Amino acid sequence: MHKQIFVNLPVTDLKASMAFYAAIGFTNNPAFSDETAACMVWSEAIYVMLLTHAKWRTFTTRAIPQPTSSEVMLAVSCESREAVDAMNTAAAASGGVSDVNPIQDLGFMYAREFTDPDGHVWEAVWMDPAAIPHENPPR
């Protein structure tokens, strides 16, 4: 089996969250979805498990953070700058909040951040590895 990542996220409205993630380009894997959880697929290696709060609590007793807090920013790569913009636009149109941080445009890299309906922060990023400055890389 190749290495994969399963990002587990607590959500308040499973159906709305599924619609949001479908709108920004994820597909649902019904084999791992039910009325308490949905497996949303970004790629062969990246899966997002959307879990109702009740289901989440079967995994941990730790508190679910408030939507205004931010513990992590989840980044996914896009094929182009236009795809980054399209994902951000789709997020805003589907219950998320667009551009929660300033747009990053470094020429060789372009990124925009948004939140899902539960406040989880995502970054859509495009990068041209051939254009990365090698003398003074960004820090």
Automatic annotation (TrEMBL):
InterPro entries: Glyas_Bleomycin-R_OHBP_Dase, Glyoxy/Ble-like_N, VOC_core. Residues 3-127 form the VOC domain. Pfam families: Ble-like_N. PANTHER family: BLR2408 PROTEIN, BLR2520 PROTEIN. This is Glyoxalase.
